[in-house]
């Protein structure tokens, strides 16, 4: 492996500004959602793609200056895909000097056997991958499982669920796994994909393309990604605005009776004022406005 693979190529002032921006966004997400605390053992799931490389790199950078101590371990699941370059990640992680483990499990054969040709494989693939990673976490004292999903992934998932699932649901920056045993975090939640792409190019990460599902052109996510890209070209900043809406939810203005007690609104209604009360209130407001005018 070349020296630029782990240490990265010679870096410019522009890169350092980008790195500082990513550190700030990731640090803000960690703080806002309480993602990492003192004594945590954080498993960073590394696939060989730009997102997980960037996540690991930024967390290592933050760890060096963090006010609390936490441990990082990079974990990759070798799914036994044909022609998978199994030497790339171990060589990179060795040179980086980070603790790491490679899990070997042939999920590729299972997915190819179960999913008909031409159908999207990502659903089953992700479930099998998640199961293997959660088992490793349980057996190795992992307290947080860090995934590389960024802001754009979260917004895309919102529209996937909206258009194809009839649900108002995205990806949570921090969540409890379905079995209640694992805390999953997404420290790149505030980071735009374009910034991840720029960072990965500048660092020269040894990217490993996904041959199992990455080349499928019929995925619904591809259509959503194109839609959002078109919107972003027409209306710059729209993706960030959509993401901001996920942080400003007003349940009383939606229609889910499981989340808001619409039937109980009658008990909260304020009684009508009498005519005398209305006159008294108007007088109070008039006096208050008059007093304010005198002090200006």
Helix content, binned percent: 40-55%
List the total number of helices.
12
* Poorly predicted spans: 1-5
**Total domains, how many?**
2
Q: Specify the CATH architecture of the largest domain.
A: 3-Layer(aba) Sandwich
Distance between the termini: 72 Å
| Main sheet record | 6 strands, mixed
- Overall pLDDT metric: 89
Strand order of the largest sheet: 3-2-1-4-6-5
Query: Could you spell the SSE succession in H and E letters?
Result: HHEHEHEHHEHEEHHHHH
Q: What is the gyration radius calculated from CA atoms?
A: 25 Å
Which fold name is given in CATH as the topology of the largest domain?
A: Rossmann fold
**What is the number of strand segments?**
6
What's the CATH class of the largest domain, please?
A: Alpha Beta
Beta-strand content = 5-15%
The CATH H-level superfamily of the largest domain is HUPs
* Helix/strand class: alpha/beta
CA-based shape: elongated
């Amino acid at each position: 492996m070349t020296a630029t693979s782990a240490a990265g190529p010679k870096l410019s002032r522009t890169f350092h500004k980008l790195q500082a921006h990513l550190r700030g966004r990731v640090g803000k997400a960690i703080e806002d959602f309480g993602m990492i605390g003192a004594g945590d053992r954080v498993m960073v799931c590394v696939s060989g793609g730009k997102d997980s490389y960037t996540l690991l790199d930024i967390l290592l950078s933050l760890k060096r200056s963090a006010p609390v101590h936490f441990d990082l371990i990079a974990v990759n699941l070798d799914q036994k895909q044909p022609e998978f370059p199994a030497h790339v990640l171990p060589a990179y992680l060795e040179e980086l000097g980070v603790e790491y483990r490679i899990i070997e499990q042939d999920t590729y054969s299972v997915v190819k056997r179960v999913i008909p040709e031409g159908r999207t494989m990502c659903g089953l693939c992700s479930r099998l991958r998640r199961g293997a990673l959660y088992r490793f976490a349980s057996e190795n004292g992992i307290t947080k499982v860090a995934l590389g999903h960024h802001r754009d992934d979260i917004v895309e998932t919102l529209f996937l669920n909206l258009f194809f699932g009839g649900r108002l649901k995205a990806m949570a920056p921090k969540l409890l796994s379905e079995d209640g045993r694992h805390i999953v975090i997404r420290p790149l939640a505030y980071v735009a994909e374009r910034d991840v792409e720029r960072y990965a190019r500048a660092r020269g990460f040894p990217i490993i393309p996904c041959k199992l599902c990455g080349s499928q052109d019929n995925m619904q996510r591809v259509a959503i990604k194109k839609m959002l890209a078109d919107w972003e070209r027409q209306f710059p900043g729209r993706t960030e605005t959509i993401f901001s809406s996920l942080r400003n939810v007003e349940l009383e203005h939606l229609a889910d009776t499981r989340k808001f007690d619409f039937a109980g609104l009658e008990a909260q209604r304020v009684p009508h004022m009498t005519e005398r009360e209305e006159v008294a209130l108007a007088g109070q407001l008039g006096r208050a406005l008059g007093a304010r005018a005198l002090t200006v």
